[in-house]
Amino acid sequence: MAKPENQDDQEYKARSSALRLLARREHSRLELSLKLRQRKIESAIIEAVLDEYEAEGWLDDDRFADVYARQRMDIGYGPLRILGELQQRGVHRTPECLDEMTEEDWCRRAVLLREKRFGLEDLQNDWDEKVRQARFLNRRGYSGSQVERALEARAPEQ
């Protein structure tokens, strides 16, 4: 017969699990809370441990948002998708790295992504291909105006 877990065991389990998860990568408070709940830890203990880790500086939603946004930008995602994913992870603030980006920067990134994926062929006479590329850029999180600018881009003449 297994012995019932007491309060100290739950707290130890919460602390060690949270620390192990944070050692692998940054997490938002919501993500960490959900992962600890999956381990059948009581909500009150989870909140106390996460409060303590925030006070220690080990858990920081702003730092998580910045790291996450930079990683997503590096692999070609646009601002709408990044902000949406951050909100799903419980972060409702815009990271500084996104605030620093101008509309022109996002357009340039969309053009580079299109060039890498499809090339910069003229799409005026190929409606189906234009729609296909526009959908791709939209799914990646670029706004309508950014997609339009990317689709208008042409390869420099040789």
Give the helix/strand layout.
Layout: H1 7-24, H2 29-38, H3 43-56, H4 61-74, H5 79-88, H6 96-99, H7 103-118, H8 127-139, H9 144-152
**Second rung of CATH, namely the architecture of the largest domain:** Orthogonal Bundle
Please give the alpha-carbon distance between the first and last residues: 79 Å
Count of DSSP helices? 9
Number of strands: 0
User: What is the CATH C level class of the largest domain, in words?
Assistant: Mainly Alpha
H/E topology pattern: HHHHHHHHH
Overall number of domains: 3
Mean pLDDT: 92
* Major β-sheet profile: none
Uncertain runs are: none
Integer-rounded radius of gyration: 22 Å
Portion of residues in beta strands equals: under 5%
Shape type: elongated
| Residue share in helix | 55-70%
Molecular structure report:
By secondary structure, the protein is mainly α. The chain has 3 domains: 51 residues, Arc Repressor Mutant, subunit A; 40 residues; 57 residues, Arc Repressor Mutant, subunit A (Orthogonal Bundle), CATH 1.10.10. It has 9 helices and no strands. The longest helix has 18 residues. The termini are far apart. The model has no long low-confidence stretch (mean pLDDT 92).
Quick description:
The chain has 158 residues and is mostly helical. Helices cover 68% and strands 0% of the residues. The termini are far apart.
